[in-house]
Amino acid sequence: MAKTLHHLRVVQENGQPPKGITRQARILTHFIKPANPTQETLQKLASNAETWAKQTRQILIEHYQNSLEYLDDEYREGPPMDRVQEAVAKALILYNPLAAR
After folding, report:
1. Are 17 and 56 in contact, with CB atoms under 8 Å apart?
2. Distance CA 42, CA 63 (A)
3. Whole-angstrom Cα distance, residue 59 to residue 100?
4. pLDDT digit string, tens, across residues 49-89
5. 8 A C-beta contact, residue 64 and residue 4
6. Is the pTM of this model over 0.90?
7. What mean pLDDT is reported for the chain?
8. Separation CA 63–CA 13 (nearest Å)
9. Long-range contact set of residues 23-28: C-beta below 8 Å, sequence gap at least 24
10. Are 4 and 71 in contact (CB under 8 A)?
11. Is residue 101 pLDDT above 60, yes or no?
């Protein structure tokens, strides 16, 4: 659940797509190389990539919100303790490398 909350926060920040999606949209814009493009064609390609990034962001927001609703329903009584302990152990390793030693 923590990972889902984190990812939702990232895609909702600033009302803009996250850096990774923005980077991929920029790559997409420059990946398509029509012969003798007009300025209009280049603008349409950039617009297409921007639309992709915005739609991808919205898809992810909906996905994470739905995931949180599912997790909330699934664990209303509380998650199984073995899974909580496993999640805490993984978090310690991921976010505190010294704890893994």
Report:
1. yes
2. 32
3. 35
4. 999 999 999 999 999 898 888 776 666 666 566 666 777 77
5. yes
6. no
7. 84
8. 16
9. 24/53, 25/49, 25/50, 25/52, 25/53, 28/52
10. yes
11. no
